[in-house]
Amino acid sequence: MISVKSDLERIYKAGIRLLPDAYEYLEQNAIEEAVLQKILSADAPFVTKDMLLSFVAAEGKIPVQAIVSRPTDFKPIAKEYSADFKVIDKSDISGKSNCTGKLEDFVAHFRNRFERISKILRDRVTPNPVVSTAKLPDNAGQRVRLIVMITEKRTTKKGNLLLDVEDEEGTAKVVIMQKTAAWDASLRMLHDDIVAIDGKLTFDGQKAGELFIAENVTYPEISFGREFRKSEKDVAIAYVSDLHFGSKKFLEKEFMRFVNWLNGNEGNRALAGKVKYLLVCGDVVDGIGIYPDQEKELAVKDIYKQYEMFDHALEKVPEYITVVVTPGNHDAVRRAEPQPMIPYDMLKSEVVRAGNPSKIEIEGLKHLMYHGTSLDSVIAGVTGLTYSEPQEAMLELLRRRHLSPIYGDNVIVPEERDYLVMDEEPDVLHVGHVHKNGIKMYRGTLLINSGTFQDRTDFQVRMGHVPSPGLVTVLETKTSKINQVNFMGAE
Question: What was the pLDDT predicted at 38?
Fold first, then answer.
């Protein structure tokens, strides 16, 4: 969508005559680039309003009012406060990538991941001494704890689980028996998980055996006893993602209804007036060349125009709201994670830009923003997880303290520092990608999947996935109240 003034200028420069009703329509509504192209190529002496509406219908798009006004009696409390936020620089890959793709990069990357997650596991209480795999024979028959990465898992003839594990000093084989505490924990175990395993190396009284019999499995996890933080200011944070500007399925009218709400034009104005921050967690646009035959599903096939549409919409967001934008797999950055911020020549609005993932502190609340492409492999890998409950898949990331735990299923860049490790326990984990809203509070961390503003796609219909478009999560930071505002209803 571009500006009304620009639309009219291009039409008149092309020598196309608009009848009064068509001119009035264009003066009040912004239109898609694809609709404008139909006007410019119209084989008629003049263009009527009916012709315009037929062009709009052909593109399957509903135009939105180009002008968003703020009622004079709307007195947003958020405007009275200054913004209190910062992007934690060390969490953001933007401008720091130096990976060459050599073997040494992969070794350094996995060593960094293992060291940092091992440090978390060493803080988890156990009565057993922590030993390396190389020291196991010296401790045969004694209860010890291993901190290891799982490299292979398979089921034995008796139905038990046999693991190949490794640490920085060697490898070992671990057996997890059925009907044990370790067995229950192993049911959600994934390749490349880094865990602590308590148990004994088999010992016949004279010689150490080859199998470590597991008694318990501990994940890095989030600490017990944490309470969710609150702020002193009575402000709110709105969470969105997966807007997909440029798609024929982009819900333009519903998104602009959300923008109208932020301006106090409808719905719960008291809550709208508290919104001080808007977090956009990736897939701002639909992009180009993301999947085969995507062109057929695009209303706007120029990626610069897609971002122009988003810029145009942001112009109508109240100026006192701080907008934070991170990329996703449809945005104009590299596909592999971690991803740098969206370039300035694409996204031109005055927003706070950060990479994917990024840590952002807002009103004292530590946010971890991650688009969420790894949710696909986690949902496929852990029994019982579904796309209809994305917060449960997010919980598995939190338990592992890693945003993309399965190497190979989600493309990563092996930077020397693994930017996907969660060293700190976040107050809010904000994720998108799966187009389904989900909320969960877990040990003082709020998990939010922020859904989408794209209607159900043909692919989702084939997969049986039902998204939840137009539903915005809003957190009131002073009271910790969580609201979900639905913009899919009747006007």
Answer: 82
Q: Evaluate whether 352 touches 87 at the Cβ level (below 8 Å).
A: yes
Same domain, yes or no: 253 and 339: yes
Q: Is the dihedral of CA 409, 361, 328, 275 positive or negative?
A: positive
Distance CA 481, CA 469 (A): 21
Q: How many domains does the chain have?
A: 3
Check residue 491 and give its pLDDT: 45
Contacts of 309 (CB under 8 A, 6+ apart): 1, 2, 32, 245, 246, 285, 300
**361 pLDDT above the threshold of 50:** yes
- pLDDT of 55 above 80: no
Q: Which residue in the block uniquely carries the two structure tokens 């949710």?
A: 375
Is residue 104 one of the residues assigned to a domain?
A: no
pLDDT classification of 4: cutoffs 50, 70, 90: low
What span, in angstroms and rounded, lies between the C-alpha atoms of 33 and 7?
A: 9
Pair 184, 238 in one domain: no
Instruction: Determine the Cα–Cα distance for residues 332 and 339; give it in Å rounded to an integer.
Output: 10
Strand duo 445-450 + 428-431: pairing:
parallel
Q: Considering the domain boundaries, does residue 117 fall inside one? A: no
Quote the tokens at residue 338: 């971690």
3-class SS of residue 207? coil
Residue type, 62: I
- In this structure, the number of other CB atoms found within 10 A of the CB of residue 95 comes to 9
Backbone phi, psi, residue 162, to 5°: -110, 125
Contact 200, 191 (CB under 8 A): no
Q: Which of 46-50, 184-188, 361-365 has the highest mean pLDDT?
A: 361-365
Residue 106's H or E segment, with its range, is: helix 103-122
User: Does 189 fall in a domain?
Assistant: yes
For residue 17, CA distances in Å to 35, 55, 368, 471 come to: 16, 16, 52, 41
Amino acid at 389: E
Look up residue 129 and give its DSSP letter.
Answer: P
Going across the sheet that includes 275-281, the strands are 352-353, 322-326, 275-281, 236-240, 471-476, 481-486
71 or 382, which is more confident? 382
* Cβ contact 155:205 at 8 Å: no
Domain stops at, among 15, 43, 65: 65
One domain for residues 208 and 231: no
- Chosen domain end from 202, 218, 234: 218
Cβ atoms of 374 and 409 closer than 8 Å: yes
Q: Which two tokens stand for residue 56?
A: 């709009």
Residue 479 lies in a domain: yes
Q: Give per-residue pLDDT as tens, 122-170.
A: 999 999 999 999 999 999 999 999 999 999 999 999 999 999 999 999 9
pTM for the full predicted model = 0.86
